[in-house]
Amino acid sequence: MNLRYLLPTIILFLSGLQAQASIDPPGKFSFGVLGGTLGYGGEFGYRNSDNSHWQFRLGYTHIGYKKPFNIEINDDTKAHFKPLVRMNLAQLKADYHPSLRSSFRITGGIAYQIKPSYSVLGNSSTGLIIDDINIKPEDLGQVELRLNWWKVTPHLGIGVGRAVPRKRVGGGFELGCYYLGSPKIDFWTDGLLDATTIPDQIPKIEHNMRNYSFLPYLLVSLRVRLGD
Description:
Structural class: mainly beta
Strand order of the largest sheet: 1-2-3-5-6-11-12-14
CATH topology: Porin
Helix content: 10-25%
CATH architecture: Beta Barrel
Distance between the termini: 34 Å
Number of domains: 1
Number of strands: 14
CATH class: Mainly Beta
Order of helices and strands: HEEEEEEEEEHEEEEHE
Number of helices: 3
Shape: elongated
Largest sheet: 8 strands, antiparallel, barrel
């Protein structure tokens, strides 16, 4: 090709790329995977434009524990406990980036607990044998303790990383705290403990636990921008 035609061709080609980039901006959505103290989950991200300080996320995390364990009270008495801990959080978050040049963000949002469970069921196959006290297993019965926090929980946090990364793939982390409200206690037994003063002590125990209202968390994420 003649050199006098080459330069105009390159200019037209580059102009076309610039025009195409302005017509087709980077994608506004992303999907990411999460992991941390709230368990594991996934998250969708959204941004309105590159020039906006705000980005938004909708996600879900799950963490649970239900492994039974035994406690040996003495050589003759063993207690068996079966916990059921389950936290499923559907989360809506808004991220504010003070500087568009930085991925640092201030995060606020709200979460909804889906079918939460914070309970433990206890019994003993040996009964209770302490010195001259000998209580049969069927007389001792079972005991269940259940904690109940708010299902709708606000949160605040800080982090690094964008809900929709500027590159195809991006990572980040977030440190924050949920406010769960003061816990309420449900206590149930079908044995001798029902005749004790333990059920009457529940309001006092709830009062002593009133400050167990905050849940700190740390999450790391890996995101992929969609729609490019």
